[in-house]
Amino acid sequence: MVAGLAIPTGVLADASRGGLREPRLKHLASNPKGNQMRIVVIGGTGRLGSEIVARLEEDGHEAVAASPESGVDTITGEGLDEALAGADVVIDASNAPVWDDAAVLDFFQTSARNLTAATVSAGVKHYVAMSIVGADRLPESGYLRAKVAQEEVVNRALVPFTIVRATQFFEFIGRIADSSANGSTVRMPPALFQPAAVAELAAGVAKVAEGEPVNGIVEVAGPEPLRMDEAVARVLSAAGDARTVVTDPHAPYFGTELNTDSLVPDEGPRLTPTRFDDWLEQR
Ligand SMILES: NC(=O)c1ccc[n+]([C@@H]2O[C@H](COP(=O)([O-])OP(=O)(O)OC[C@H]3O[C@@H](n4cnc5c(N)ncnc54)[C@H](OP(=O)(O)O)[C@@H]3O)[C@@H](O)[C@H]2O)c1
Predict the structure, then answer these.
(1) 109-131 per-position pLDDT tens digit
(2) Of 52, 64, 67, 228, which is best to mutate to test ligand 1, by the most ligand atoms within 8 angstroms of its C-beta?
(3) How far is the CA of 22 from the centre of ligand 1 (A)?
(4) E-state strands within the chain
(5) Using a 6 Å cutoff on CB, does residue 43 contact ligand 1?
(6) Would you tell me how many other CB atoms lie within 10 Å of the CB of residue 25?
(7) Number of compact structural domains in the chain
(8) The domain containing residue 95 runs over which residues?
(9) Residue of the nearest CA to atom 44 in ligand 1?
């Protein structure tokens, strides 16, 4: 097949199910030249990773979901060289299985060291690492300190890279509530954040992976800033969860107090389209 004229496999699959659907045609716009690549998604079975894999397939790429379940472990190194053989791009969308401060730091540092080393050996052209908007502003949080340490390993590695700092997923807001719950009360700060639908963040990550490495940071965020206490209360209420949200400016968010803008993106993030109100309604 001539590379420039290749028909993305996602479209062929759709056609075989009875015709092309409009959303698929829209997705093609993000890969207009049909440049098919082999893209390995570490953590490709996770919440974000599985959406990235789906989106890359829709764009016509060979997307490989890699995780311990499929024999690829960034901590032990098992299966890494085999998975990365022939890859054009690697996306690290893995997450630590445990989040206490020492364990999460060890996970992200070890994982990033092993993965960047294997990526350099495999001659991969673009390494995309997932991080979090505001991670560098909140050193009191062990989890966010670990994300910054992961970024530093990527920064020092001898591989062309893009760090994608994403905002919180709408789908993660319930977990935020659980992390701050005490019995029937959930204490939340009135700080702003800019959450997004995970599938749309994944589309943003796929687009970054399809482009050239920037050797720096790209931010992807939801369309509007929201107050965290209010958003959490609305998610709980929509789920029929009777817990009460109490606004408390000192309530910790994964180990740190938040300022009003700690989790808000810098100037010029790439924005996802779906607003929180519409997402809640669709659910
Ligand atoms: N949650 C949010 O709102 C948010 C916002 C911005 C950025 N992020 C970032 O996005 C990334 C993904 O988060 P998520 O919530 O989608 O994570 P998740 O659902 O917990 O998925 C984690 C993935 O990592 C894999 N994994 C765990 N240990 C591994 C190892 N040793 N080697 C290879 N893969 C391993 C898991 O595989 P198994 O299923 O086989 O265990 C799973 O596929 C993280 O870096 C996170 O910091 C998250």
Answers:
(1) 999 999 999 999 999 999 999 99
(2) 67
(3) 30
(4) 38-42, 62-66, 89-92, 126-132, 161-166, 181-182, 185-188, 192-193, 216-221, 226-227, 244-247, 270-271
(5) yes
(6) 11
(7) 1
(8) 37-169+198-223+268-273
(9) 95
**Is 73 part of a structural domain of the chain?**
yes
**With 70 as the cut, is the pLDDT of residue 27 above it?**
no
- Ligand 1 centroid vs 42 CA: distance in angstroms? 8
Q: Tokens representing 60? A: 């016509």
67: CA distance to ligand 1 center in Å?
A: 9
Q: Which atom of ligand 1 lies nearest, measured to the CA of 133?
A: 6
Rounded to whole angstroms, how far apart are CA atoms 29 and 59? 9
Is any atom of ligand 1 closer than 6 Å to the C-beta of 168? yes
Closest of 135, 235, 256, 134 to residue 186, by C-alpha? 235
Give me ligand 1 centre to Cα 196, in Å.
17
Residue 210 in any domain: the answer is: yes
In a domain, 13, yes or no: no
Q: Note the pLDDT tens digit of each residue in 225-270.
A: 999 999 999 999 999 999 999 999 999 999 999 999 999 999 899 9
* Ligand 1 proximity of 128 Cβ (cutoff 6 Å): no
- Asked, for residue 235, whether it belongs to a domain, the answer is no
Alpha-helical (H) ranges within 62-166 are 80-84, 101-122, 142-156
Question: Apex CA 92: angle with CA 86 and CA 98, to 5°?
Answer: 135
Hey, what amino acid is at 281? E
Confidence class for position 98, pLDDT limits 50, 70, 90: very high
Q: What's 81's domain CATH number?
A: 3.40.50.720
Query: What kind and span of H or E run contains 282?
Result: helix 276-282
